[in-house]
Amino acid sequence: MGKLFKDKLGFGTAPLGNMFRNIPEEEVMATLNTAWEQGIRYFDTAPFYGAGLAETRLGRMLANHHRDEYVLSTKIGRVISDELEDPITRDLGEKGGLFEFGNKNKMIVDYSADGTLRSIEQSLKRLNTDRLDIVYIHDIAQDFYGDEWLIHFETARKGAFKALTKLKEEGVIKGWGLGVNRVEPIEITLELGEAKPDISLLAGRYTLLDHEKALQRLMPNALKEGMEVVVGGPYSSGILAGGNHFEYQKASPEIIAKVEKIKSLTNRYGISIKAAALQFSLANPAVAAAIPGASKPDRIVEDKAALNEKIPTEFWEEMRKEHLVAEDAPLA
Domain NADP-dependent oxidoreductase spans what residues (predicted)? Predict the structure, then answer.
C-alpha cells in the first residue's frame, strides 16, 4: 500500500467542509490548487465533512487532473439524505457542531453492507470520479457514539468489513481500513483477525502531544500484520501549528503549557514547531503518510517546508530529556 503514496505528505480536507467557519469558495479552491502545485497527490475526504461539502469541493479541483495522477480516499458510515436539518443541533455525538457551517443535509449513520455501497455511490458522484483508491470506515469509536460504539462496530464487522473486503478482492478499490480518532477500534479489528485491513487512518493519536498508547500497542501490531497507518491531525487540531484548538475544542491550560515547552525548544534550535510535529508523526516505520488539514494556501506551503526542514539530532535528544516524547518513540 505504501507504494500508492508518491510522497509522505497528503492533504486532509476536513477543514474544507467549513469546519469552525464559513470558508469562501475562492479560498477553498486556492488552497486545493496550492496543494497540487506543491506536489501533493494524496487527498483524503469524507461525507461527514460538511455533509458532503468537502467532497464536492475536492471533486471540482480534481476534475482538472487525470485520475491516474493522484490517490483518493474517502469514508463510509454516514449516508447523506435529501432531508434538511439545522447543522448546529444535528446529532453527531461529542463532535456535534464541528460543521455547523456545512451543508444542512441530514446524515444517517449506517455501517451495514448496503449502507457502505450507497455511501460509496454518493461519494463517487460528489467527487466526480469513477473510482476510489482507499475507503475508510469512519468514526466507529467511543468519541462519537459513547458506550454504544461497540454496537456500531459490530454492524460494521458484519457489514462494511465484508463489503469492502469484497470490493478489494474484485479490484474495485486498492485497500480499506478504519478512519478513527481512537486506537481501540483498530486494535480490536487486528486482534479479531476476521478481516485484513490494508491501511487505517488514525487521527490525533500519534502526535507530539498524544502518542504513548498508539506507540506501545497499535504501531507494533500494525507492522506485524502488514497494515500501514496514515496519521491524521499531526498538529493536534491546530495547537501545534499556531492555533488554539486541541481535540477539536479550545485547548486546556495544561496542553497550552506543554506546547509552550516544546516551542521553547524549537525556538532555541531555530526550527518550526510544525516541522517537529510533522516529522515526529512520520518517523514511525508503521506510518505511510500524514495528512494535515488546511483551509488557507499558505498553510500548505508551510507544511511542505516543514516536511523538508532539517531538525538537529540534539533537539530530539533534549525532547527526550525533558520527557516531551516517549523514551522509545522513533524520531526523525
Answer: 8-320
> Is residue 254 helix, strand or coil?
helix
DSSP element (H, E) containing 175: strand 175-180
pLDDT tens digits along 208-235: 999 999 999 999 999 999 999 999 999 9
Whole-model pTM over 0.90: yes
75 classed as catalytic: yes
Q: Which of 42, 70, 75, 174 is catalytic?
A: 75
Question: In degrees, to the nearest 5, what angle opens at C-alpha 104 toward C-alphas 101 and 107?
Answer: 115
- pLDDT tens per residue, range 184-198: 999 999 999 999 999
Q: Which helix (H) or strand (E) holds 203?
A: strand 199-203
In the chain, the domains with their CATH numbers are: 2-321 (3.20.20.100)
Going by their DSSP bridges, the two strands 175-180 and 134-138 should be labelled as parallel
Of 49, 70, 111, 248, catalytic: 49
Residue 44 annotated in active site = yes
Residues contacting residue 290 through CB under 8 Å, at least 6 positions apart: 8, 9, 10, 230, 231, 232, 234, 278, 281, 282
Active-site residue among 8, 44, 206, 304? 44
